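User: C-alpha cells in, sequence out, please.
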C-alpha cells in the first residue's frame, strides 16, 4: 500500500493517509482518524484485506487501526468510490447506507490476472529455495488452470520444467491440452505424483491429500498458493517427511512495488471511467 500512495502522488492526486507507517507519509497529508482522512474524499482505498467486521481497518503491526464507520463515510464527496481487496458484510452495509459503490477488486479478472504474475514468481522462488533440484529439467504438476495456475505453468515452461497440469473438469483438460501442456485428471493425482519433483497447488479445496503426499518422492516439494487454509494436508506432509509450504499473499511479500502498482493502476483506470477531472484520494 505504500507503493499505492507513491503512485497516486506521482499521478498528481491529493492523498490523505491514516493508520500507515511513517515511510509512506512523504508527500501525503497525514490524518489522525479515518473520519478526518475521508473528509471530502472522492476515492476511499482500504488495504487488500479491508477491515474487520467491527470496521477496524487492517494495518501493519504497530500502526494504529483506523475505524471505518458511518461517521467516517458521511464526510466523503458525493459520487465517491470505495475500493477494498476483500469486503465483508459490515463494509458492504456501510457503503449501501452511504450510497457509495463498494468495489471488491481481489477476485475481479482484471486484478487477478495481473496479480497472478507476482504470485507465480513467488511460488517458483519458494520452490527453488525449498528444493535441492533445479527447476530446469525437473518435473512439476500444477493443480488448477485458473488465472494463477496458467501463470505458474507458463513460467515453469519458460524455465524448461516438464509441466503437467491437473484439473477436474473435461473443459479444463481440453483447455490445458490446447495450451500445449500435458494434462492429468485430478482423480489420477496420486499416481501422477509418484514421478514428479514439485507440486504447485492453486485449488482452494482439499486436493493434495495424504495419499498424494505419500506418493510424492521424498525430495518432492509442495507449494500451495490457494487461499488459506490451502488445499494441502500439511499435517500429513509433516508426518511423512515431505516439504509442503502454504504461500498466501505472495504479491505483497515477494514483489510489493509491482503489487502496489497493479492496485494503483487499476484504481486509477476505474476512477477515470467515472470522471475526467482531477481528484482527491
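Assistant: Sequence out:
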Amino acid at each position: 500500500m505504500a507503493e499505492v500512495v507513491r503512485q497516486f502522488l506521482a499521478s498528481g492526486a491529493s492523498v490523505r493517509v491514516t493508520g500507515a507507517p511513517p515511510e509512506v507519509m512523504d508527500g501525503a497529508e497525514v490524518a489522525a482518524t479515518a473520519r478526518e482522512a475521508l473528509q471530502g474524499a472522492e476515492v476511499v482505498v482500504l488495504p487488500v484485506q479491508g477491515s474487520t467486521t467491527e470496521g477496524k481497518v487492517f494495518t501493519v503491526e504497530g500502526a494504529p487501526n483506523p475505524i471505518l464507520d458511518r461517521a467516517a463515510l458521511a464526510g466523503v464527496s458525493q459520487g465517491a468510490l470505495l475500493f477494498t481487496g476483500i469486503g465483508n458484510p459490515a463494509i458492504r452495509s456501510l457503503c449501501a447506507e452511504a450510497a457509495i459503490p463498494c468495489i471488491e477488486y481481489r477476485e475481479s479478472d482484471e486484478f487477478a490476472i495481473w496479480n497472478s504474475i507476482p504470485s507465480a514468481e513467488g511460488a517458483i522462488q519458494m520452490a527453488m529455495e525449498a528444493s535441492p533440484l533445479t527447476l530446469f529439467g525437473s518435473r512439476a504438476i500444477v493443480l488448477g488452470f485458473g488465472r494463477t495456475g496458467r501463470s505458474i505453468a507458463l513460467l515453469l515452461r519458460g524455465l524448461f520444467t516438464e509441466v503437467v497440469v491437473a484439473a477436474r473438469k473435461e473443459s479444463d483438460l481440453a483447455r490445458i491440452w490446447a495450451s500445449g501442456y500435458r494434462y492429468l485428471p485430478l482423480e489420477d493425482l496420486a499416481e501422477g505424483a509418484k514421478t514428479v519433483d514439485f507440486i504447485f497447488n492453486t485449488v482452494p479445496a482439499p486436493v493434495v491429500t495424504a495419499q498424494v503426499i505419500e506418493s510424492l518422492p521424498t525430495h518432492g516439494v509442495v507449494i500451495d498458493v490457494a487461499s488459506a487454509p490451502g488445499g494441502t494436508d500439511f499435517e500429513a506432509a509433516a508426518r511423512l517427511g515431505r516439504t509442503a509450504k502454504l504461500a498466501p499473499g505472495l504479491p505483497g511479500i515477494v514483489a510489493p512495488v509491482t503489487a502496489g502498482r497493479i492496485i494503483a493502476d487499476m484504481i486509477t483506470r476505474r476512477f477515470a471511467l467515472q470522471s475526467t477531472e482531477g481528484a482527491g484520494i
